[in-house]
Amino acid sequence: xxxPVAHLSVALGAGGWxxxxxxxxxxxxxxxxxxxxxxxxxxxxxxxxxxxTFSHSLAAAVGLAAAARLLRPSWLRLxxxxxxxxxxxxxxxxxxxxxxxxxxxxxxxWPVITERWGWAALVPLYRLFADSPFSLSGALRFTxxxxxxxxxxxxMGRLLLRPLLPDQFSGSPAAVSGSSSAHSSRGRGRSRxxxxxxxxxx
Length: 202
Description:
Elements: H1 4-14, H2 20-31, H3 37-42, H4 47-50, H5 58-71, H6 80-95, H7 101-104, H8 123-127, H9 136-148, H10 150-160, H11 173-198
């Protein structure tokens, strides 16, 4: 399974986060799907049953993006589209780090389809360092691997997600305000042009 370093690397590559708040929020959204561990560890539920289920679904990504759209909190520096893509990058990356899809795969289409999906594309790399992250030694070894893979994962986010997140979705207040200023300036220019064209010379 991918740990926070991997998810953060993809999120950092996804956008040109000019505002520090946008950078922090993108990082939080990138790892938010793992909040299901609160149920696993907090309530003592079996990890193989509850991890990578509802919180790793397309429905969860849509729900969080819809909440961002409807609530529009003043502190949020990410567009709903950015929230959706960054959140969804988490389960998609997890699907590439799945040793046994039947037991540890991602329920991407929950609740419509509860089948678990995943591929062992990155598993051989992880297995070079440890068999499992569910121990202190394993977690540290996995984190070391992901630190070494940070640049390629950043490049993955840059290549796959960045084209879908143009500047107006970069979370930069300056970019948004700059765009608004440009539109208003063009509007004022058109107004002055219309006024001057309607005034006949004396």
